[in-house]
Amino acid sequence: MQLDIADFEVLARDNYTFKHLKVTYSVAELEEIKYEYKKHWQKWKELNLTVATNLPKDFGITKPKIESWTNGWNLRNHFWCAYRSESRQRENACLAVLLNKKQYQIYLMFQHYKSSERSGSVAAYNDLLQEIAIWSQKIDITDYYIWPQVEHELDDHLALKDYLASEKLQTEFQAKLAGKTFQIGKLLMKAKYPQIEDKTVATLKELMPLYQALG
Predict the structure, then answer these.
(1) Less Cβ crowding at N or C end of the chain, within 10 Å?
(2) What burial class does residue 188 get, using C-beta atoms within 10 Å of its C-beta: 0-12 exposed, 13-18 middle, 19+ buried?
(3) C-alpha span between 132 and 29 (Å, rounded)
(4) What average pLDDT does the segment 176-196 reach?
(5) pLDDT at position 144
(6) Ramachandran class of 179: left when φ > 0, alpha when ψ lies in -120 to 50, beta otherwise
(7) 115, 132, 148, 152, 182 from 128: Cα distances, Å
(8) Which is one Pfam family of this protein (predicted)?
């Protein structure tokens, strides 16, 4: 499967609320917008189901949580999917894949939304910062970035190689966490990516040791 420029660009809008869209566009135009959104989201769904099927069986990940293309009131400004092992469905930590108008990201995260209903503390998750240097020695960290959860997904994030090379940056980074967590993963900027399912599976395999360290 190829990720195309159009898959990014369908998410590039000035406004995502149906209330606003109904005022701005005719019924026919709005139906066309919804049709295009759903078409790209169906591709997104197929991609993530394929990825889950191709992950090693011992990861125990069989049912990715694929977020809908709408929340009822708005079009999403990104497509998102969470990957959790079957035995860890009620934990805050997860692997995830996200597509927005700027980039495609494959990453490890702590899901803060409704986190009180799941297990896993912020402190325990952030302890992973002590493991990253050793973990990174076993992979190619090209295109890997690390960023505070509070940083907007469209901001320019810190390259992992720069983070690892500077104690000053590491100290500043931890101060930016502001009681929240960090995210780490591979960011692929808007472009065409053939066989994106293979790239996604390979990156999730690379991130799996960090995810498993929280289990």
Answers:
(1) C
(2) middle
(3) 48
(4) 96
(5) 98
(6) left
(7) 18, 7, 13, 21, 9
(8) HI_0552
pLDDT-based confidence at 215, cuts 50/70/90? confident
The contacts of residue 138 (CB under 8 Å, 6+ apart) are 209
* Of 68, 13, 75, nearest in space to 44 by CA: 68
Containing structural domain, residue 73 = 5-212
DSSP string for 94-150: EEEEEE-SSEEEEEEEE--TTGGGSB--HHHHHGGGGTHHHHHTTS--TTEEEEETT
What would the pLDDT profile of 11-62 be if each residue is shown by its tens digit?
999 999 999 999 999 999 999 999 999 999 999 999 999 999 999 999 999 9
pLDDT of residue 114: 86
| Number of folded domains that form the chain | 1
Type of residue found at 146: I
Return the sign of the alpha-carbon dihedral for residues 85, 86, 88, 89: positive
Give, in order, the Cα–Cα distances in Å from 65 to each of 96, 98, 160: 9, 12, 27
The DSSP annotation for 182-211 comes to EEEEEEEESS-BTTHHHHHHHHHHHHHHHH
> At residue 124, does pLDDT exceed 90?
yes
Percentage of the chain exceeding pLDDT 70: 100
- Short-list 97, 102, 42, 25, CA closest to 65: 97
Q: What is the CATH number of the domain that holds 29?
A: 3.30.930.20
